[in-house]
Fold these 2 entries.
Entry 1:
Amino acid sequence: ASGKLSAPMKNDGTPRPTVTGGTFRRLGMSACVAACKPELVSHFAPRGQQCCGTRGAAEKLATLRRLRLQQDPSRVIFNADERNGFGCVKRRAIAQGLEALPAKLLWLRQAFGRFYRNDSKVFFRVEDGEEDVITLMVKRGVHQGDAAGMVYFAAGFDEATQIIRAEFPEACIQFFADDMHGDAPDREVVCTPQNGLRPFREGAASMP
């Protein structure tokens, strides 16, 4: 449930153009989020979102799909990635999602209001020279490196998560942040021209 404490680096060693916030703020937030991990898991995991404190979530999701295919080889696996989801989620949606958190996590609503009330600076290097950097002010998304970033994203994405799961009741759908993973009885359950989903692996025989 915590984010990295420094901006991720590109292959050439330069920082990615993302907002990272202050180091002391991020260290403090990391400790606070870690202390609330059980409450975060209890709230988000039953709703299909496994990015908030679920230890080894990605490996558990893969194991779950493998077991379901072993029981029923006819099932189809599918996935989808909401590209740049962290940078595009509306902050109003995040604020609304945080309202649904239990009382013990009330401080997260307050922290979000404090640190996201104003537009955020994002720095982009357009050329190799130090002077060739432009600054953009953004109104959406969460700060890269914010230890509560996963929680904020999960809160903002929660309504969409529930709509997707309700739309495909026959499918088993789980999320890890902006990555959707699932399996269904057959491809017709989830793969239609309207939603653009495509199975990426079918049948137990092709599982690793």
Entry 2:
Amino acid sequence: VETKFGALPNYQYALGLAYYNQHHYADSAQIMEKLLLRNPPREDKVEHVLGDSYLSMGKLDEAETAYRKAIDENPKDPEYYVAYATALRRSGADHLDDAIIRLKSAQSMNPSDWRIQLELGLCYESKSQFADAATLIEQAAQSQPNLTAAHVALVRIYFRLGRKGDSEREKIKVAELERKQQEKLVREYSTDSLIDGSSQQDSGESAH
């Protein structure tokens, strides 16, 4: 298959994305870099994955450059603004204002996007604007009740606002979500998946 289709941009993109999803970020970045030299039809998507790969490797400057190029190619995709703002926020306080400007631009396109609400809220938290941060991250948590990152952030933000009861409530929520995630992992790696032939069917229960 690789011999026949290996030169096709779609194949290379899919291969790079597969490497990224398997946490082989350097391999993903290398493939996307080479693909961009061939002027693929959707350079914005390639730049986005390249930026994600760089971000996962801690190469913040390279990630920011890739995300900016993705935005230049397709300024109507809010996800690119969120990714770019994430890289900016991780780069330090000097970059927060730029991140907020980018996120507000994305928010004007999609006000209800929970990813924008969460990242914008985290930026405000980094600027110690805790009330603004709480409002936005509460919206994200309302939209995505099982979004652990939102509840973890609210633990910190409520504490800084002096809302100790709300902070404790969020701690309980985080513990509950983490417990459910652990239970899910246990189910996925249960004895049903072993190759020795043992399963819950032996006890009359159906296997999943």
